[in-house]
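Exercise 7.
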Amino acid sequence: MLKFEGMCYNGHIDNRKVEYISSKINSKGDGTMKFIISGKNITVSQGLRTAVEDKLGKLERYFTPDTEVIVTLSVEKERQKIEVTIPVKGNIIRSEQVSNDMYVSIDLVEEVIERQLRKYKNKIVDKQQAAANFQKEYIDKDYEEEDEVKIIRTKKFGIKPMYPEDACVQMELLGHNFFVFYNAETDQVNVVYKRKGNTYGLIEPEF
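Solution. The predicted structure, written as tokens, is:
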């Protein structure tokens, strides 16, 4: 049986796809960044909530007050994973880090997001919409230019209608980690991809 696990996009959780998510959700709304913290196969203790808010709170120098930070902590055997999603105007800033210690994962994810913000500043900041999400100091500051993103190959292929389960089978037959297809159920272009544990994910567009 093909098994789809829950996905989170733009801060909205589609309950039809969530396999399990802890009911322990913490939302910090004190005029700074708003943290929405949930756990999967882990109890989100006060210590973990504090660690997340303290560490990721360092990003407040980049974002305007009330920016949402969606955090999911999960445990699978020895894998202690944190996933962070920050929806901003026109983009989604996202990172996940895994280690054998959740507190280490929390430290790592903040460093990665900060590098993303510096490296791709000119790509993610729209001057006309920047005030909605980013601090003026971040907008005005010039960071060292990184190499341009270069697309070195373009591939075209025909898309025929199929069901998500059939798309997963086709992906396996091709030996790929993802597969783009036209969903016969929704009449939209979707993507299926392989996850750990011999499971699959489905990405649907949201306009």
